Amino acid sequence: MLRAPPCAKNKASALIRKRRKAIAWLTLLCWFFTGPASVHAAVNSALGGIDGINNGTLVGGDGTGTAQIEFISVQLALVKEARDLAGTVFASNADVSPGQEIYFVLYVDNITDFLAPQFTIEDALNETQFTYVPNSLETTTVASGSNAAARWAGIWTPLTDAVGGPDDEASILDSGGPAGLDHLAIGDVTGQVNQPLQIPAQTQWAIRFRVTVN
Q1: Could you tell me the pTM of the whole model?
Q2: 188 with 138, same domain?
């Protein structure tokens, strides 16, 4: 029997166990947005005045006036889940069997009041453990803060596997080695240039696909 892990944040990985021995990690690379959701802020003050003349806005021209700009940096969390075909998230150490089909779900929650601009995600399947089920890529968007049930209940839109087409913000290709599709890329990834992905304010974006346990 194989064991499916709980979901993980940041560089999300799914650890599958066979005869109680770890056999591999699924790796996930997230560019631009990685790590747990957190907020960082820094205040910068403008110096000087209009045409070099100090004015009431920039008191004394030394940055003590009201002309200050606050930069806010938000680090969004990337989460990966393993689910059965009914959409139930696997509990820690739940059993799965060779030949069984399961879902992987990746999602990013834009908790901010601003559009999250272009970013990319890459997920490499370990082909010794999983076989991708062709044409199973689907995406959905739901409200920020949605739980597992609400996320699964979203309207899922099918995507093509290959790069190309108006829907193609994601694609999965064969990276070499064993025959089969194994490299999922989302967004404008080198060598796999998909449509740019942007997440609206207060919106959670998710992608799911099916694999067969080897």
Answers
A1: 0.71
A2: yes
